Amino acid sequence: MNSIFHRRSIRKYTDKIVSEDLIEEILKAGMAAPSAGNQQPWHFIVISDKNIMIDITKFHPYSQMLKEASHAIVVCGDLSLEKHEGYWVQDCSAAMQNMLLMADNLGLGAVWLGVYPREERVNKVKELLNIPQNVIPLGIMSLGYPAETKEPADRFNPSRIHRDRW
Questions:
Q1: Cα-based distances in Å from 166 to 83, 158, 161, 163
Q2: β-bridge mates for residue 125, sequence order
Q3: Domains annotated on the chain, with CATH
Q4: C-alpha pair distances (Å), 51 with each of 69, 118, 148
Q5: Distance (Å, rounded) from C-alpha 57 to C-alpha 140?
Q6: Distance CA 136, CA 92 (A)
Q7: Which residues does 52 contact at the CB level (< 8 Å), separation at least 6?
Q8: Is residue 69 within 8 Å of 143, Cβ to Cβ?
Q9: H or E segment to which residue 103 belongs
Q10: pLDDT tens-digit profile of 67-118?
């Protein structure tokens, strides 16, 4: 539970490479996410090629940290796996959050880079990574060993809580 309150978006990384064993643990956490009707509509693209990560920075305005990252993981929703139309976004978002929490738990730094619903980003990622037509990239997780520390943020806001009705 500490990772829920400790996790922060980390955008600066050391040059240490994240091991494949840790990548697998992160992917297992993603695949443990709940999904509508247990449809599990996700696919994950693990990127370690620096040239690909640099190419992403050329069209994604908030992705410059990929130049320093050890890896990136693209979380995608496969429309052909949907049992419940439209829920792929929620399912893949739950997978991304699980992965971010696992990265923190493993002592790694990560940040969620939004792709969907920005059509230009979706199309560029699909083209760059040769993603099939029926698969939509939701987001990219930048991943590495943190070269920055951030204090936990207390985001509890009682004014956002409503009971029974608005």
A1: 32, 13, 9, 7
A2: none
A3: 2-147 (3.40.109.10)
A4: 12, 23, 24
A5: 12
A6: 10
A7: 72, 128, 129
A8: yes
A9: helix 88-105
A10: 999 999 999 999 999 999 999 999 999 999 999 999 999 999 999 999 999 9
